[in-house]
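Appendix C. Worked example: Pantothenate synthetase
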Amino acid sequence: MYLFKRKEELERHLTTARNEGKHIGFVPTMGALHQGHISLINAAKENSDLVVCSIFVNPTQFNDPKDFEKYPVTIDQDVQMLTEAGCDVLFLPSVQEMYPDGLTAKMHYDFGSLETVLEGAARPGHFQGVGQVVHRLLTLVQPDKLFMGQKDLQQCLVINRLLKIIQSHVELVMCPTVRGNDGLAMSSRNLRLNATERINALHLYKGLSEIKRQYQKENLKTLKENAVKELTANGFEVDYVELISILEDGSVIFPENAGVTPLYAVVAAKEVSSGVRLIDNMLL
Ligand code: AMP
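Step 2, the predicted output written as structure tokens:
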């Protein structure tokens, strides 16, 4: 696997590959890799000739500075996992490399209501930061396909929108959420949970599973309230539990108000004893 820290080195390597007619698959990450990330590398390998992964803990997408400081970094292990998975290129830029003119936003993207609901409401400015970094990475890598996880469903919707805004022909491939044997969605932030907290974190998965089991027979509002009650009773501060649908234009609607069938159950909550905020979702 090639490892590049400088933009110019990466661009040179990829220009040669592109001139050889290779189709490039791209997997952007923030590192502390797990099998969820590796599933994206595998999907990229199956669907492209050359796979590029980036690891960059993007400061502009953290609305909580403590979350940024505590974000796990396991770079040696990441390199080993990517090598074993057969990734071709790892791009590992510094903050200076990605933001040579400083962190103040140069662009503002109109993500519409995606920025005011769910993660958009809970994490002000988060999606603008995601937009900044993904736009810069796409300009450098110029992939044919971009692989992202359903785990971050709303992020996929935002990037879909970004691709339209920047008139990009990159194809976004959304890959299913990889879970542990017990059902917990894999996440880099799980590394910050001790054994007891990790078991407690399973309540997110249990809550979503219960909604999936009941949503056709039960009132949606009651279902949501029950899930919030259960999570709160088990030591969570709940940001939201919602049932959502997605319109053709990629915006989110709330079936409860619109009289349509829900498509996903989504949850975000902080496990209080660890202080770790977790998100998850489930296709209904
Ligand atoms: P992150 O490193 O958390 O920014 O995630 C990088 C990419 O991996 C994003 O597209 C995530 O949606 C995806 N991802 C994270 N966790 C999982 C998972 N458990 N299953 C599938 N994809 C995931």
